Amino acid sequence: MNAPLNIDQRELAVKQQLTDIALTDREQFRTQAQTALLHFARRDRNTLTRIETKATTAYDVLGTWSDQLRPLRAQLEARRSEPAFRAAIKKQLVLMDNELDSKVQELIDDRLFEVQIAFLDDLYPTNSEARSHAKNLLSRPDLELNELLARLTECILYMTIADNNGISVVDPHSRLFRRIGSRQRVRRERRATKRLQRERLSYIARREKELMNLNGGLLRAISDNGWDLVTVISLRNTYDKRVNALPKKDSASALKRLAIFEKVTQQFRDDYVQHMSTGKMSLELTRKLTTEVDSLLLRIFDLSMVQKNQLLIQSREHRELTTERQTLLARK
Fold it and tell me: 85: closest CA among 113, 71, 112, 105?
């Protein structure tokens, strides 16, 4: 027999997608898994159990049918009405027109029987009850077998991922005492998940506060002003390039660097002051606002390269924590 089919390789993309759901939202995964189990009727499970042996699983049978036997059957069925094939049979066997149809049907039927026997021989080297049940199963329409394979595959993936990630799932078709046990495990897991969520939310709140207070509250000041840090850092990078392009003597001059700073940030400062202006703002308030903008920009532009990169990392961490906090709160 061929090696057993590897569902992880055959369904890699689907498994990864379901694993992502299990890691990010256990309850959504649990609901989807229980729905899949609900649709996998007990009658179908019993049918598939009867075709299994120690060496052959139901997935091996249906997966190999899908890969090998189904396309071969379709190819043979197409030959029944293929003009070239029918003409060749008529010529080689010297048939009359009224004999052709029955001979073609006979040849195709015989070949279909042979390929199915070869298929069963490969999966079941010896006669067995499982082989007999498999033969009966393969007589069903392709559409029905396709649906059966899809349900089986879905349930195998869900249960494998559930086991790998410690997620209990209630199988609606399992026996009563198993359902009771599964529900108890689900309740324990949900209590544990709630506790972990509370602990995680507490950590996020502390860490967000820490990040906002680093560098004298620089990240908080940027956030309070509604600035896009990436835009500001882009201005800072432009400033660095122009300063580095200066002759060594000029690059050491604070006045030269300040002039470049003002030129690089002029449009940004003007746009921000204009945005923050309400009605007919006095010159005094406008000057105060301009000074505050300059002060904050200068704090960012005076950062070393290491400090600048750390600020970006801290901003990304804060953004990710905020997203995680919102996600956790949405699940409560």
Answer: 105
